[in-house]
Specification:
18-stranded antiparallel beta sheet, Ubiquitin-like (UB roll), 6 helices, mainly beta
Length: 582
């Protein structure tokens, strides 16, 4: 498929990708007159990681800085680089520093030598005979990595702690190097300690939270074999409840020789009520304001009541949800909610109200899902045609989360998928709406440089396009879709206006660089379209957008500023650029 690309936009986008990618190694934006060079390593990933460890991007050297002071500063960087190389298995790596001062531009050069990689030949453990399954396989035959050796030691201790030994520890570990064969022998000395069984628990710090709320989350019965994983699960569930600002779980101050592990729980309750205010701006839809109010502990057992209101130039939305935790069982909650909205876009004008009941179930740390009925009444206008709908639906969703962080993931994989059958009570017909979104996060240089990708596929089946309420169809374009294109503008059109489709394809790739503390930048490429058939037809138009973004990281997620450029703009439809602040 041939795509016409506006030459100026292509040049700007290409320059952005080149600058970010090349900056990982040569730091072209470092203020003159100093430039960073790292030589002796051919692996670009390792070179990028080393560059990110140095102090130069965060605190650029001044032109008139004392050379001796400058050398002391970057000697510390050289030590950091050497520790990183040793952790990757370069046991004899050496880092030398050379500061070449010139009139126009000086060079801070780190030279790496001794980059031969050792391989782990054998692993020996004394003090314990039963090793975790496949435990040695993560070391034997692998490049020598001190970080991996430390991690294997932690896994060994965790295995012992999950078999009834709370005081298990690695007393010491040694690594023997054979310089002729370039192989290594790893030895661990383990002290298991005294065995124990789970005992009682005692809690302090509760004021308004009912003690039964804590009791329901205790995952053991006194007399069970001690498992560290049970104690961690207990602590995690209390933290994730949102009721406590501090959760401390430890062994009670009793004689450990009794063989009973009694648990002391120290808690500090959160404020019950919270008010949140948010704002955003998008060049295609204008400013947006949001107000949230939440009561975390309505009746003492963690019942939560939330109000959420959003207002923009062409949108208002109100939402109220009551959440009942531990509904019927400890791993699921019940949500009762009501929602109302009015939205006016180039595609439609719609007003609707909705009531719903949703059960949230958790099968494991990774797997969760929701299901439950909903009743929706709406009135919509599209292309001067008014329609009213009264529909029931039963959405079912599944989530698998393998990411390291929900708000700002840097590694891992996640997927969200769902299907929602609708039935129109007045016209007596039904249809199915389904979507799936996998996302992957690959760390290229630790948490500093991350490549993320996302794909979304959607389909509506069982009815013609005209039978689907306009606001339930698929639309593409905007800050949460293809950046660089106006909101809902990509897809089927009639009389110059978007009318939505029965299928959807969206793809996005981002290169994220956190270059200093709470500051970061991204380069992105988005693409996709909505289609009239229920199966996407890739032979039709596929719009592409690219651009640059800035991130400021906070404890509740990043603040985003993005500028998107359409790579194959449509005459009379698309602007030269769009920008988004959220």
């Amino acid at each position: 498929m041939k795509i016409p690309i506006h030459p100026n936009l292509a040049a700007a986008a290409g320059a952005g990708w080149f600058l970010l990618a090349s900056g990982c190694i040569t730091m072209p934006w470092t203020p003159a007159p100093y430039r960073l060079e790292i030589v002796g390593i051919e692996d670009k990933e390792v070179t990028a990681a080393l560059a990110a460890l140095t102090d130069l991007p965060a605190r650029p050297a001044k032109p008139d800085q004392d050379p001796r002071r400058l050398e002391r500063r970057y000697r510390a960087d050289a030590a950091k680089l050497q520790r990183y190389l040793e952790a990757r298995g370069l046991a004899h790596a050496e880092v030398s520093l050379d500061i070449e001062q010139k009139r126009k531009q000086s060079v801070i050069r780190f030279t790496i030598s001794g980059t031969n990689v050792y391989t782990v030949r054998s692993v020996e453990v004394t003090g314990w005979d039963v090793l975790p399954e496949q435990w040695t396989h993560q070391l034997v035959g692998q490049p020598l990595s001190y970080a991996r050796i430390d991690e294997a030691g932690r896994r060994l201790v965790r295995s012992l702690q999950n078999q009834g030994y709370p005081s298990a520890a690695v007393e010491h570990k040694t690594v023997g190097l054979d310089h002729e064969t370039q192989e290594a022998e790893v030895r661990y000395s383990v002290q298991a300690g005294a065995p124990a069984v789970m005992g009682s628990w005692q809690v302090d710090g509760l004021k308004r939270v009912d003690p039964r709320f804590v009791e329901r989350r205790v995952p053991w019965v006194p007399g069970d074999v001690y498992q560290r994983s049970l104690v961690d699960q207990f602590s995690r569930q209390l933290s994730e409840s949102g009721l406590f600002s501090y959760v401390g779980v430890s062994r009670a101050d009793e004689d450990a020789r009794t063989g009973v592990y009694d648990v002391a729980v120290h808690l500090k309750e959160q404020r019950r009520r919270t008010i949140g205010v948010g704002a955003a701006y998008q060049s295609d839809t204008g400013p947006e304001a949001r107000l949230q109010w939440q009561h975390r502990n309505l009746f003492g057992m963690g019942q939560k009541f939330e109000l959420d209101a959003k207002y923009a130039e062409d949108l208002w939305l109100g939402l109220a949800v009551l959440t009942l935790p531990d509904w019927l069982r400890g791993d699921q909650d019940l949500n009762l909610g009501v929602k109302a909205s009015e939205e006016s876009t180039d595609a439609y004008l719609v007003r609707y109200g909705k009531v719903f009941l949703t059960v949230q179930h958790r099968w494991s740390e990774s797997w969760s899902g929701t299901f439950g009925p909903a009743l929706r009444e709406s009135v919509s206008e599209q292309l001067d045609a008014d329609e009213a709908y009264l529909q029931v639906s039963f959405p079912v969703t599944l989530f698998w989360n393998g990411r390291d962080d929900v708000l700002n993931p840097t590694r891992g994989f996640g997927v969200a998928g769902g299907i929602e059958p609708f039935y129109d009570l007045e016209e007596q017909f039904g249809f199915f709406k389904s979507m799936v979104t996998p996302a992957v996060y690959l760390p290229l240089a630790g948490e500093t440089l991350v490549l993320s990708s996302r794909l979304t596929l959607g389909s509506i089946s069982g009815v013609s396009l005209d039978g689907i309420p306009p606001d339930l169809r698929f639309y593409v374009g905007g800050g949460q879709s293809i950046r660089g294109y106006q909101y809902q503008s990509v897809g089927p059109r009639e009389e110059g206006r978007p009318v939505g489709g029965k299928s959807l394809v969206e793809a996005s790739v981002e290169l994220r660089w956190r270059f200093w503390r709470n500051l970061g930048t991204v380069v992105f490429l988005d693409g996709g379209s909505a289609y009239e058939p229920e199966i996407s037809d890739f032979r039709e138009s596929f719009q592409w957008g690219t651009g640059l973004g800035f991130r400021y990281f906070t404890g509740v997620g990043p603040v985003r500023i993005d500028v998107g450029l359409p790579l194959n703009p449509r005459d009379g439809i698309d602007n030269d650029y769009e920008f988004y602040i959220s």
